[in-house]
Amino acid sequence: MIGKTTLLEAIAGKNRGILGNTTDQTAILAAIAQLEDRNPTPRPLEATNKLDGNWRLLYTTSQDLLRLNQIPFARLGQVYQYVQVQNAKIFNIAEVEGVPFLEGLVSVAARFEPVSERRVNVKFERFIIGLQRLAGYQTPNDFIQQIESGKKFTAIDFSIQNREQRGWLDITYLDDDLRIGRGNEGSVFVLAKC
Questions:
Q1: Which of 59, 127, 143, 167 could form a disulfide with 184 if both were Cys (CB 3.0 to 4.6 A apart)?
Q2: pLDDT in tens, 71-86
């Protein structure tokens, strides 16, 4: 698909949005909008076989995520989002690279509730930040299994009880291996299926 190729070429080398200038971002957002107009899955929440699973972030405009790259002596590594449609759960994991043996991670577990054919309300439930080694982090899938088992990690690990820790996300494009979403803070997310 030409639109998909155009988008992937535009975001190549932009390190998930960390690199690039205003002209790059304008071109990327235009390519995203063109692809969204050709969304092959107009009811993405019903396409559980496509939506379920582990996704890797390719590009975002989310300053909350991109700021992780500004931590002294560290840089943003891979960012994953695991979606479990049947259980209405989302797990976000951002790897933070830097000084050897001091690699970190930031993880948020959330529940979602469909409110339309493509929009979900998200309620954040748990926040984990710490060193990968101390938390026993190996892979995103293994870490998610540990979260679901109720493991308490050697890290900053707490439940989020604040009702204001909510948001929403529109899934504006979904095919077998690419997903685009737009969040309540105006952020755009482009993810590839792992």
A1: 167
A2: 888 899 999 999 999 9
Round to whole Å and give the CA distance between 118 and 56.
20
Contact yes or no for 106/157 (Cβ under 8 A): no
Q: What is the pLDDT of residues 152-161, one digit of tens each?
A: 998 889 888 7
Cα(88)–Cα(174) distance, integer angstroms: 17
For the chain, how many residues are written? 194
State how far the Cα of 81 lies from the Cα of 94, in Å rounded to an integer. Answer: 9
Structure tokens at 122: 């998200």
> Residue 161 corresponds to which tokens in the numbers above?
């009880």
Q: Which residues contact 190 (CB under 8 A, 6 or more apart)?
A: 7, 11, 32, 57, 58, 59, 60, 178, 179, 180
Can you name the CATH fold of 42-193?
Answer: Lipocalin (2.40.128)
Domain residue limits, the chain: 42-193
